[in-house]
Amino acid sequence: MAKKFRRIGVLTSGGDAPGMNAALRAVTRAALAKDVEVMGIYKGYKGLVHPQLKRFTARDVSNIISRGGTALYSDRCHEFKEEEGMQKAIQTCRENEIDGIIAIGGDGTFRGATDLSIRGIPTIGIPATIDNDIASTEYTIGFDTAVNTAINLIDRLRDTCESHARCNVVEIMGRNAGWVTVEAGIATGASAIIINEVEFDEDKVISQIIESKKNNKRNFIVCIAEGVPALLKDPQYSEKFAKRFQEKTGIETKFVRPAHVLRGGDPSLRDRMIATQMGSEAVRLLLEGKSDLVVGVRDGNITPTDINYALKLDRMYKGTLAEGDLDSYTAEQVAEMKAYCEKRREKIRNLYQIAYEMAH
């Protein structure tokens, strides 16, 4: 028989993402509808190590579905990575009679969630990051809003590029993933897109744009993902690229880095809807006695995945597996994980190919 839940906690951790508040609202209201109390935990895991909690009512989450950021705030907590800090967090849960936790955030948030689960606090994770870089889910809360923010910004840049026959080099957030960059680039008709997942030939791109200029094209947009290897080696790569681009093409070129602008703003319809669905599903799973799961999107459906499996799959996709990470999985499971990662890589390569075709 599933454990009877009287009170659950909810926190947001890691980088903020539009839709986090919608997820918070959904978790709170779904739990209250089932006569389960909700404790809002402020500043992520730090709010458990150094208690900052508040009992939430439906009123506390009214009118936040349309707000960006996170009403619970977010913070880094190095103490939580140590056993002493984790035990403080467990003690906070015990003292406040919290029977389970729903953690909203990225892969770091999920590592914290599984640490709680191992120590007896049932936990469910909800993926929220604009980067869409959690391999176990096809979609993360905040991604759609971030892409639309990038699109709106680039559309405006294009207007002035057309007026003055210029180019704008735009560096776009996304950590090591190129999802925001490639989708925003396709949607705005970028002349070139540079992402970590596909090899890039700078000279070839410049030659192609010179040809486009000869055919009387006046405006050019080049989108660069912040996680490309060149940027990881040299944080000023994009700015230097813009200068080289102008020198080699004769096109006046400006550099733009929207940075954290992409993390803010009112969430889109898609982010509000998926956040609400994920929040409701997370509560259902937790109250059914499930734990150590992350709610994600697979084949278009809201689907739970074991957190440890999700973390290993993520490391496999990103090439950061450590020795022994896959020892607990069968050969069939490892093959399935590899096939899934390749499918995800193929998807972004296909998008890149579409972008390339559309630019010529």
From the N-terminal CA to the C-terminal CA, the straight-line distance is 61 Å
Please estimate the helix content. 40-55%
Helices and strands, in N-to-C order?
EHEHEHEHEHEHEHEHHEHEEHH
CATH architecture of the largest domain: 3-Layer(aba) Sandwich
| Percentage of β-strand residues | 15-25%
Shape: elongated
Q: Which strand order does the major sheet show?
A: 3-2-1-4-5-10-11
The figure for the number of domains is: 2
Evaluate the radius of gyration: 22 Å
Provide the descriptors you would attach to this structure in a database record.
single chain; 360 residues; alpha/beta; Rossmann fold; four-stranded parallel β-sheet; 46% helix
Quick summary:
The chain has 360 residues and is of the alpha/beta class.
How would you describe this structure to a colleague?
By secondary structure, the chain is α/β, with parallel strands linked by helices. It has 2 domains: 7-142 and 267-321, Rossmann fold (3-Layer(aba) Sandwich); 146-264 and 346-358, Phosphofructokinase domain (Rossmann fold, 3-Layer(aba) Sandwich). Helix content is 46%, strand content 16%. It has 12 helices and 11 strands. The strands form 2 sheets. The protein has a 7-stranded mixed beta sheet with strand order 3-2-1-4-5-10-11, with helices on both faces. It has a 4-stranded parallel beta sheet with strand order 7-8-6-9, with helices on both faces. Helix 1 (20-33) links the parallel strand 1 (7-12) and strand 2. Helix 4 runs antiparallel to helix 11, helix 5 (143-164) crosses helix 6 (179-187) and helix 6 packs parallel to helix 12. It is elongated and about 70 Å long. The N and C termini lie far apart (61 Å). The model has no long low-confidence stretch (mean pLDDT 94).
